[in-house]
Design goal:
Elements (H helix, E strand, L loop, with lengths): L1 E3 L3 H12 L8 E3 L2 H11 L3 E5 L7 H11 L4 E6 L4 H9 L4 E4 L6 H10 L1
Parallel strand pairs: 1-2, 1-3, 3-4, 4-5
Length: about 120
């Protein structure tokens, strides 16, 4: 998995949640969308977890680019905003799941479901 968020604290929280599960492996981290695209091309993760709002390139733009560049990659977008419009837009761009940061405890469950599909 590749974890992408401009906040080092949030990246650490996400990594801690996922690394507490024995079947997940974090292969890299990135702090913006452009860096995420570069790392995804190099590392070929099976799952990328993106923050929506980031500098340089937001999560929607970067996720769309990664879906085109890395075959079979699954993408989870997580955001502070539980906005149905954002979720519709994300889904139309090929993002597999959207999770509110308020429900971060669902991250492992969602990642596992996507990895199994």
């Amino acid at each position: 998995m590749l974890v992408v968020d401009d906040s080092p604290l949030m990246r650490r929280m996400v990594c801690d949640i996922l690394e507490s599960e024995s079947d997940f492996k974090i292969v890299g981290e990135a702090e913006n969308g452009r860096e995420a695209i570069q790392k995804a091309k190099k590392l070929q993760p099976d799952l990328v977890i993106f923050d929506l709002g980031m500098p340089v390139m937001n999560g929607l733009e970067a996720a769309s680019a990664i879906k085109r560049a890395v075959s079979d990659v699954r993408v989870i977008l997580f955001t502070l905003y539980g906005d149905p419009d954002i979720e519709r837009t994300a889904r139309s761009m090929g993002i597999d799941a959207v999770i509110s940061k308020e429900n971060l405890e669902r991250l492992g469950e969602t990642a596992r479901a996507l990895a199994g599909s």
